[in-house]
Structure formats: structure tokens, C-alpha cells
Amino acid sequence: MRFSKYHALGNDYLVMDPCHVGHVPSPAQIRRICHRNFGIGSDGILWGRLSSTRAPFALRIFNPDASEAEKSGNGIRIFSRYLYDCGLVKEEPFLLDTAGGLVEVHVMQGGRMITVDMGHVSFESTKIPVAGPEREVINETITVKDRSFTFCAATIGNPHCVIPLPSVSPELAHTYGPHLETHVNFPRRTNVQFLQVLDRANIRIEIWERGAGYTLASGSSSSASAAVAHRLGLVDKKVTVHMPGGTIGIAIGEAFAIRMTGSVTRVGEGTLNPEMLDGAE
Fold first, then answer.
1. Distance of CA 88 to the CA centre of its chain
2. CA angle, 202 then 203 then 209, to 5°
3. Cis amide leading into 129 (omega within 30)
């Protein structure tokens, strides 16, 4: 199995192209490939380039636990860089089809910087989804372990639970993230962001990603968190999101349309030895 590896602010993915691999790895193989000790190690697998009736290219996104994500902002940027490196796209906008909806991508600076029109953020419970009656999920209470939090929920093609706090830390994400991800409020589990507003143009987040765990950076988490902070009146329409891995720029348009800009770094290419997959059926 051939692969290309990239990272977006420390959020690393393997791109596996059906043209080179032939078949989708099994769930057990995905878990083995993504394992940091027994495999190559990654925050997920980007499976494409796939055909689509709606766009020139389509993409499937697999988490390290082999679940499938609807959308990943960093994953979209990385896959777009892969298409650029293969000579399949140029530095002009193109459409990409994901399970979380169509996005428009613009590659810049020789692939090192990429802008994605991520779509519209919604806070509606039925779209996210969040259990209970139909409503906007804003400033509700959720209790996990020994603590209650005020949270907002959002979707930008995948679900997010955003918790504004005076300060945030990796320890918060590690301690409460797994329990929030699987809370009964979220029928399809959820991504979790602990949000600190620094000023009208800057926020900081710590991330627990659904199916992946603690994550250094996330494009969809940046999008959802910036949208929630704007919905609460805490930030303006242009926001820099600070994460352990670096920063992403978010521009918020009409009806919470999100334009995300961030970097991508090419790591390398290689071939997986079949021996690594022994016993992973």
C-alpha cells in the first residue's frame, strides 16, 4: 500500500489513493496503520481521489478508530495539497465532495497555504444532531464526571460541542473530552472544543476529536469554535484560532458561512510492508 504523509499544524494524515492501493483498508487495517507504535502513525486516513457527480474530486475520511468522519478542515487542506502535488489541480478554486458537503478550495503559495470555503455553521439540534426537542443549542448545561459545563453545539457538516471557559488547557481536553464525545446528548458522538476568548480577533482552543482523541489542531473545530464565539457576541467576523499546533484564520460571512485559511506541510511518501498488517483482517 502506497501512501503520502502530510501534516496541517501537527494534525497528520496519510493520503491513500485508490489508483495506487486498489481497495479500502479494513477497519482493523485502518486501526493498525494509524497506530503510533505498530503502524505508520497518523490522525487518520484520507481515501481519495474518488469520482463524484457533484465535483471533480471526492474524499472519504477515516479516523484512527476506523470510524468515518463527514468532514475535516485539516484533512481537506491536506488532500488538496496532495492533488496539487500530483499536478491534478492548480492555484485556482476547485470543488471537492465530502460526506459533510461540497467545499470550495483555493491552493496558494505552492501548496503551502490553502483556503477552504467550509460551508455554513448551524446551531440547530436536528442538524448536529443533539438529543431533545428541536432548538438552537446555545448556552445549555452538560454534566460529565465531577463537573458541569455551559456548552453550545454546532455543525459544519460534522458535530461539535464548544465549551467557553475563562482559560483552557490540555488537561481539560484529556480529562473531560472522552466523556463529552460519547455523552448521550450526542447520538453520533461529537468533537469537543474548550474555548478561551483572548480578544475580539483571537481565540484559543483545546481539542478532543471524535474518533481520534487529543489533537494539536483542527480546521472544522476552528470553524465551529469561531462561529460559536461570534454567535455569543464575543468576537468579530475575522478570527485567528490559536491551537497547540499553530494558528488558523477564520472569516465569518453571511449566515455563518466559514472561510478557513491554514498551512499544510508535506512530510513524505512510502510503502506499507504487508508484514505490518499481519493479523489485522
1. 23
2. 145
3. yes
- Report yes or no: 208 and 195 within 8 Å, Cβ to Cβ: no
- Reported in sequence order, the residue ranges of the chain that DSSP labels E, i.e. its strands, are 2-8, 11-16, 45-50, 57-62, 68-69, 94-98, 101-108, 113-120, 140-144, 147-155, 159-164, 191-199, 202-209, 213-215, 238-243, 246-252, 257-263, 265-271
Per-residue pLDDT tens over the stretch 208-246: 999 999 999 999 999 999 999 999 999 999 999 999 999
Output the pLDDT for position 94. 97
pLDDT value at residue 101: 94
Contacts of 212 (CB under 8 A, 6+ apart): 43, 44, 63, 64, 65
The per-residue pLDDT for range 15-70, each reduced to its tens digit, is 999 988 888 999 999 999 999 999 999 999 999 999 899 999 999 999 999 999 99
Identify the structural domains of the chain with CATH numbers, from first to last.
Answer: 2-101 (3.10.310.10), 120-263 (3.10.310.10)
Place of cell 511518501: 269
115-148, pLDDT tens digit by residue? 999 999 999 999 999 999 999 999 999 999 999 9
Contact between 33 and 64 under an 8 Å Cβ cutoff? The reply is: no
pLDDT of residue 22: 81
pTM: 0.95
The DSSP 8-state label assigned to residue 24 in this structure reads P
Torsion angle of C-alpha atoms 262, 170, 41, 31, degrees rounded to 10: -110
Look at the block and give the residue holding cell 464575543.
Answer: 234
Cell numbers representing residue 252 in the block: 465569518
Task: Give CA angle at 127 (126, 128), nearest 5°.
Answer: 100
Q: Scanning the structure block, which residue is given the C-alpha cell 489508483?
A: 19
Q: How many CB atoms lie within 10 A of CB 262?
A: 25
